[in-house]
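Give me the fold.
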Amino acid sequence: MSTWTRLRQSFWFIPALLCLGAVILAEGLIVIDRQWGNDGLGALDFLITRVGESGSRDLLGAIAGSMLTVASTTFSITIAVLALSSSTYGPRLVRNFMADRGNQLVLGIFVATFLYSLMVLRSIRVLGEDDGTYFVPHLAVNVAVLMAVLSIGVLVYFIHHISESVQVWTLAEQVRVDLVGVVERLYPEESRDDERLPDPVEAGAARRAGGAAVASLDTGYVQGIDVDDLVTLAHQHDAVISLTVRPGDHVTKGASLAVVSPADRAGDDVHAATQQAVLVGRARDPHQDPEFPALLLEEMAVRALSPSTNDPYTAINALDNLASGLVLLAARPALSSHRHDEEGHLRVVVETPHLLDILEHLMDAMRHYAIEHPTVLHRSLTLLAEVGSASRDAGVRRRMTGLADELVEAFAATSPHPGDLEKLSAHAADVCAALSG
């Protein structure tokens, strides 16, 4: 993940840009008022309302004060929504609110209007002590009024947006978009030449070669790996870099990130460049980690099935959104763990998440938490059928039949109503038949 991407996802970036724009706009309009204020704006002069020095001060002060109050209220509402969503759907969904462009724009517009009003207010001053004349940037004052009117519309939008953002389908859809996005980025529709399956002799030679471990400089989660930079680095030093972590893994300071083979190619510059190519942060990020958004949807389903909530329909909604992302993943060809340079030499070995990793983790959770909810178990079987129909891997489909059988066995062990067991068994049989066909 690039620095620009991380900046755009931060909560303060857009408000900071809007504040900078407000300062530039204020200074620019003040300069225009100084140059042409006395002569008017020609044909457009009728649009300017002049309220004098005292009126301008009062107007700008009222706008600045009200914007600060509204911004504080906006923060309070946002924090309340964050607390509600965190306790109901899971604390890891908070990042969606922080990265939400609507929330960032609302905060930015309020703070920018406040800052703009202050900048214009400070420019009102006495020009002559004797005659008592004042400089009043009438154009800038009128623009402040327009920004205040715009802020009222933004406030109405914010109330609608924040009300909609706490709806369960909105939260699930946001995570689904993250899941689909990472699948589109990591799993192309057709495998590239440098992602072909490795030659067994070449791969064996790489494993047998001695290597030097590259240690992590920080403790945290692997958020991203710049594989292209590592391929270039390995090519320059005629080495093979075998990564021991993948996005989503937790590492401690000093833990191994990669092994450089042969060991005599692992100089200080190679160590530093490898450490720089592996981004370690405080929390998991979905940019290169498809398991993370899948885990968020799984967590939403599990929390909905807790005794305190007991909402199987929210769990079904989470599985619906998860299915759409997993179907796309199943339709894409599996990636090789080997990356080659332009000359065809093996340069980087990196593990990529597999569809079965996500499915097995999900079905384990459903066997444990959804065992008392037949409707959710039926939706889990339907998910297996949907994903299996998109998969071109016979081994994956065969394992999915085993997952369907395990769901039925776990449900039967709870001594359910015979009718419920019969329906679930029949559904599982249909799914297994479709997967085996």
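The two ends are 41 Å apart (CA to CA).
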